[in-house]
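The records we work with from here on pair a chain with its fold. These numbers are not coordinates but entries in a learned vocabulary of local backbone shapes. To see the layout at work, look at the sequence and tokens printed below:
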Amino acid sequence: MAQYKVPVLPGDGIGPEIIAEGKKVIDAAGEKFGFDVDWIEFPHGADHYLETGELISEDSLKELSAYEAIYLGSIGDDRIAPGVLEKGILLAARFYFDQYINLRPIKLLEGVWCPLKDKTPADIDFVVVRENTEDFYIGIGGRAHSGMSKDLLEVNRTLYNAKFGLDIETDSEEIAYQIGMISKEGTQRVMEYSFDLAEKRNKHVSSVDKANVLSDIYGFWREEFNAIAEKHPDVKTDFNFVDAITMWFVKNPEWFDVVVTPNMFGDIITDLGAMVQGGLGLAPGGNINPNGTSMFEPIHGSAPKYKGQNKVNPIATIWAGAMLIEQLGEKEAADSIVSAIEQNIKEAKVQTYDMGGSNTTSDVGDDIARILLGQ
């Protein structure tokens, strides 16, 4: 029997409840397909931070780096200012482990109500590959107050006027700036991953950018996309401005197979994708380093107001667990979990409130495990 050690960060809010159901279903899959998972729980989250003042230490990150995959519940707590936990734990892990792929399947399962008229599971089955470590998320930026930095304000005015041939006096008392950066290496590796994935699917990669306006950063993105595309002549390609792709996701989702996008745009369009596939309760995600430590999670938040009520939908977390064990090499088991999720939805007997039912979080986990085991 194959043995796997998997660290778990249940996190905050509903995190422990949904992670419990994900573990339950993976354990059932292990029973059926002949593998065993040793779950190793880590405390990092709001309670740990409030008790110790620690977000996640270098020692903890080093320990986690010994494992191939991490299972994450959710991060965020209304007792702590927004961004503290998210940056200090979630983003810290993504950057430390160089999880440069954010993988988001956008798949409409049979039995799920779709908000798009006349669209079926045959129309909505694509994957968004979001670059996960660059762009406007690199953390370079700041603010300047006139009383603190007249020189900086003057430099800003001078550069702006030189750029556009203007002569504008700047009387602003404060400016804010954020710098986006993409590298050749970072851009190439996410695109190579996307083309390799398309080779296993329907051989079509769609690129997202805003090269018509942000021509320096996203013009470079487009040039690199063309260079990688030349190495994959059998894969069809197309370009989409980010504003346009939000329209096409709604009007013609069947056009897409693999969508590759810079970090910021991917952050936005994957939430639209979640709604297209039926809602955040059905949306899993993976933060992937193909040669290192990856991390799998639902894309929704921690929903503190539902903490401890055993009422939220665990399907996104269970599906993220399927992605996790596929990363470990258990593809047949992963596919069976997704099939069991779909059967649970089609039968419509055991569902949480967001899907029109009255069952609990643990009821849904029990039912998916039952279906998986053929009981």
